[in-house]
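Need residues for this backbone.
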């Protein structure tokens, strides 16, 4: 095998192996494709790792681009004043938050409520192409992202509901007296986990 490698032979056993990583977004959104074109250029022509990470995140599916709330944004940027928070995803409003600090953010999408509150607080909202003009190498920028595990679907993943030490949420119609409360849930009905 080593001898074949020395003479530049073709490894036929691995000719169908391909990378599972995306090299382009699945979406056909023209604006997203223009951003990909821009950051592909920046990733190639600058030494900045920031542009490579942004490009990789632009390729991601929506499940892997979770939203970031205003409260999370405020707490993450508390100690880094003067920097632009960059979110490759959506920034959402948080009604539980009474006072929004002055923020400088760049994101793919900002909801109407979050946009109004950021601008009212004297902050600024940039699009990613405006960010590329201002900071082509990502200087004074902080890349942030939301929790992937915050989705409702994730609560149902893991060990089967009802097995010992499982905290997985069952797919059940209702959470009442008659639903999943008998065998396996109390000792008087067979056994209890």
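Answer:
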């Amino acid at each position: 095998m080593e001898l074949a490698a020395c003479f530049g032979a073709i490894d036929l056993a691995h000719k169908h192996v391909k990378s599972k990583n995306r090299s382009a977004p699945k979406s056909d959104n023209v604006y997203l494709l223009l951003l990909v074109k821009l950051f592909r250029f920046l990733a190639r022509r600058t030494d900045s790792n920031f542009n490579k990470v942004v490009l990789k995140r632009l390729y991601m599916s929506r499940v892997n681009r979770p939203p970031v709330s205003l409260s999370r944004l405020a707490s993450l940027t508390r100690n880094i004043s003067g920097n632009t928070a960059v979110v490759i995803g959506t920034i959402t409003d948080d009604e539980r938050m009474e006072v929004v600090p002055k923020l400088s953010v760049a994101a793919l999408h900002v909801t109407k409520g979050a946009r109004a509150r950021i601008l009212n607080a004297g902050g600024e909202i940039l699009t990613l192409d405006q960010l590329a003009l201002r900071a082509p190498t990502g200087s004074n920028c902080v890349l942030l992202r939301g929790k992937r595990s915050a989705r409702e679907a994730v609560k149902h993943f893991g060990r089967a509901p009802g097995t010992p030490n499982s905290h997985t949420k069952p797919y059940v119609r209702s959470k009442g007296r008659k639903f999943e409360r008998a065998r396996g849930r109390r000792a008087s009905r067979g056994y209890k986990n």
